[in-house]
Amino acid sequence: MQQEAEIKSKDTRRGTSQFVCFKLSNEEYAIDIVSLQEVIRVPRITPVPQMPLFALGVLNIRGNVVATFDLRRLFHLPEKEFDANTKVLVVNVNYALISFVVDEIRDNVKLEASQIDPTPTVKMKINRYCIQGLGALDGRMIAILDLPKVHGVIKDEIAKITLNSATTATL
Fold it and tell me: How far apart are CA 53 and CA 115, in angstroms?
């Protein structure tokens, strides 16, 4: 099923890929549409104790417990209250369902491979490691997230908290 979705999102004849674009702060980001399960309004999120601040908790999506993360906090962007435009992206990363809170959904776009530049080596607000490339479309600059790497950063940060908690508990 994942393989079928990948075929649908990439047009190999023209070298195009489809992305879902969203805003965080005043910046525009995108993820490959293949990873997206759904977009929902912000539901009730159940907090989980002893997690990093960017880990908002879990939510129930049709019987599935899904971890929810605030990308603003993860990327050290200024905080903002949730509003009517705030959405949750539910994504499949390495066969795991997780979700991200974003400021608003912009649109879906197709980008040719020639429209995507490598991640610049300059210092960025967010971890360069999490950026797959920069897409240019109609004067817009779109940072394309590498979801497996974002997921890896999340897991590493949670592991640090868990390790620190375990060390403190044994003292």
Answer: 35
Structure tokens at 127: 């971890």
Radius of gyration of the chain (CA): 17
Rounded to the nearest 10°, the torsion over CA 59, 61, 67, 70 is -70
> What sign does the CA torsion over 100, 103, 104, 107 have?
negative
Q: In whole angstroms, give the CA distance from residue 80 to residue 29.
A: 17
**pTM summary value:** 0.82
CB 32 within 8 A of CB 147: yes
Print pLDDT tens along the chain (171 aa): 444 444 444 444 458 899 999 999 989 999 999 999 999 999 999 999 989 999 999 999 999 999 999 999 999 899 999 999 999 999 999 899 999 999 999 999 999 888 888 877 766 666 778 899 999 888 889 999 999 999 999 999 889 887 665 444 444
Distance CA 143, CA 131 (A): 6
Q: Counting Cβ atoms within 10 Å, is residue 61 exposed (0-12), middle (13-18) or buried (19+)?
A: middle
